[in-house]
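dude i think i finally got it to work??
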Amino acid sequence: MTSSKIALITGGSRGLGRNAALHLARAGVDIVLTYHSRRAEAEAVAAEIADSGRKAAALQLDVGESAGFPAFAQALAAALAETWGRKSFDFLVNNAGIGINVPFAETTEAQFDQLMNIHLKGAFFLTQAMLPLIEDGGRIVNLSSGLARFSLPGFSAYAAMKGGIEVLTRYLAKELGPRHIRVNAIAPGAIETDFGGGAVRDNAEMNRAIAGATALGRVGLPDDVGGAVATLLIGETGWINGQRIEVSGGVFL
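look at this
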């Protein structure tokens, strides 16, 4: 019997990470999810996955502190051995992130550095640290943003990091090609989650405005993105590589 595939999802305790984890679990994939500080929420997601018949583990990780990545790699290796009897995993989803909405003229160096450390440096060096643990023939999905294509005031620093992620995605696809590791970026549009304080979900005026600018006439839901992530990882999409795939319902076309 072939062993189950295992996905590592950063920031899997809530939002899009949680949704992607549940989508993958329903499709038969086991999950390792990371959390920054919300241990109880992460363990609740792991328990929900376990209740569905899949295996899951929750590990603490601060993606903004790359100095901690070697220790995380050791913790992950121990979890893989203990729970699965394996030395490797199959899929990596670089999802963890924060949102900072501030005008360009008022963006501080500290805010810029925080976004860079989490969204760009973190994804870069965490993926590097995972290379010995990810299977040849595995798949990586990086989370970008629609804001890397269209421009809305207040997101200059955040979007710049996501633009960097899209370039990094192409380079990873090229350099990991000899190991047959596919690497793609998913770029969500505005989604109803608690990201950025939950404004898209809770601000009715903003929600209506975005829906009006979207070809499909509504704002995105977590299932829209979680389903796309799962499809890229386990669907018949092995010839899609090095691509940016926007999941936005056709916003600002």
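The mean pLDDT is 94.
im so relieved honestly
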